[in-house]
Known about the structure:
The protein is of the alpha/beta class.
Amino acid sequence: MRILKSLFLSVFVVLFLASCASTQKVLSLPNFDTPIKITPKQSVLSDEEKKFWSHADLMEDSIAGMSLAKAYQFLEGKKSIPVIVAIADSGVDIEHEDLKDVLWTNTKEIKGNNIDDDKNGYVDDIHGWNFLGNASGKIINADQLEITRLVKKGREKFGDKKAEDISENDKAAFEAYQKLEQEYRLTISQKEFEIQEMEQTQNNLERLKAVFEDVRRFAGKDKLRIRDLDSLKPTSLLMITQIETIKKVLENGATEEDLIGYLKEVKDYKGELLKAMKGYDLNLNDRANLGDNLYDINDKFYGNNNVIGNKDLEKHGTHVAGIVAASRNNNKGAKGVANTVKIMTVRVVPDGDEHDKDVALGIRYAVDNGAKIINTSFGKRFSPNKEWVFDAIAYAAKKDVLIVNAAGNDSKNIDIQATYPNDSKDLKTEFADNVITIGASSLYYNEKLVATFSNYGKINVDIFAPGVDIYSTVPKNEYEPLSGTSMASPSTSGVAALIRAYYPNLSAKEVKYILMNSGVKIDFKVIKPGSQTEENPTGELVPFEDLSASGRLVNAYNALQLADYLSRKNSN
Length: 572
């Protein structure tokens, strides 16, 4: 239970040490409670360092990575068994050059015979299952946000009724609906305003880009510098104005390359906003194509085996899978954290909010088909059928399956504002011991250590892991850095997979314990996510230990040392 966590963990360590007193000379452990004192890396990172900073060693590289090279040195000569990691996410491009060799294959199924050979209810589930599809091959991409679904239900029930028209029994539900309706309308207005701002910014940047091009042509230069501009002799008022404009830009430290990069970011963000707006569409109902009863958890055998989905849209799941397990020795673009792992794809996340039913059945599918770790890099604020998911988590705990869960990207304290899925019904006490929730960290071993977007919580976030600019696989044999707790979670899943592959006698509960207690202890203050504003651009400094239960960063090398120690203890 979380409310007893600190006491429990300290007692746990003492008991281990006491029971192994006779073997301390052989099974010695470093002190994981000693904070590391270093000067953070000051120089600009090389391209290679940027790609794999999350694998770096803090002491050797001055970068807040997970010490992966040291971890593999520690594992040299040790035996392992393959571990199945389920990626409960959007689709995964299982044809990717860096993923095709690390896929889980259901050997009990005969590919393409359209028969449920293993009689698990899922026909031809060779590499996993797509819960967002139907038997005729239809796949679902876009879906509503949960708040939209709730508002739609509220409108269907209450219509244009006023408070005085509502029965006593329905008053609480009506008041809850009114609050959701207000939030729904306000959010849409904010999104529309933000889209307008991005459009205006894009237009301004495109005009500035055109000015750069005009001045370059006039100057006969491939690249503009201030000294080049000072030597120009324009004759038109327009060119004089354009040169002065470019001078101001350059004097402020920006370049044309910076401009082009920023323009791309603005376009991409506007595209994301427009895409997200679909989630607020009350009339969107692609889900009906699945043909299941959405509100019957026992109606479970729907979907299809197209775990890829649409390659043009399944960047997220493909990226997450690559962080865990992209082939390490094929000289391709990425390197996964774990080397002895098989990826099972469980497609449950559309563009929009996932449905509780899909998540619950997806967890159960992964458990029943041999997954030892399930990565859940998704989340939402509302969960009307959360009990189904709670039951699935408890089922996974009973079957000794670890769930590695992303904390979310809203810069919120999830001890106060719930995010789903989670392992606490009251935000205070865990109902299961097999879920570890991950916040996102950056490469900077200073006040910028915590990602600005990461959720946090002294009770409900367990530990932090690299989640900023993580380089990994994206569809069609391509690679890209992405950021989010969605990236921090598979970074942790990869370390968990190493533990379970090399130390299979350790339980999910023990793996969680190892991850939380072997991480790098942080004893300095960091910028609290969400605290930076126009009025306070530096943000609020808070102790790092106040942002999670452990006050640590995941470290693969430390984790394997502790795993080795506890595994030997279990064997004695």
